[in-house]
Design a protein that fits this description.
Blueprint: H1 3-28, E1 37-41, E2 52-56, H2 57-64, E3 69-72, E4 82-87, E5 92-96, H3 98-111
Antiparallel strand pairs: 1-2, 3-5, 4-5
Helix pairs in contact: 1-3
Length: 112
């Protein structure tokens, strides 16, 4: 698979996980305190991944503010289609770039 095609597919996969997490976020927003964590789906590019990441609502929203950023479990990053922009104890933030970044932004805008 060509690199650009792989980037596009990865961004679409991650955007699907993001859509599920957005629903979790809306449902959970008033039900949890600022310090409580919620099990969000790992937003990695692997469509078979079903792992969750424990994030506070503030942590999730901070990642979500940038349309090309996605929270993933450590070890779930794909260096050939994304770069790591932040590391935390429980999660990593990856950034889509190139064609994948464009797809992520387009998907983010259409969902907003």
């Amino acid at each position: 698979m060509a690199n650009e095609e792989k980037q596009t597919k990865a961004a679409r996969n991650q955007s699907l996980f993001r859509a599920v997490n957005e629903r979790v976020s809306k449902i959970s927003d008033s039900a949890f305190t600022d310090s409580e964590t919620i099990g969000f789906l790992c937003e990695c590019a692997d469509t078979a991944c079903t792992q969750t990441i424990d994030l506070t609502m503030a942590e999730y929203q901070a990642v979500r503010r940038v349309p090309t950023h996605f929270p993933v479990k450590p070890g779930h990053e794909w260096p050939d289609v994304e770069r790591t922009v932040a590391r935390h104890d429980r999660y990593i933030v990856v950034e889509k770039y190139g064609e994948a970044g464009k797809v992520a932004v387009q998907t983010w805008r259409s969902a907003g």
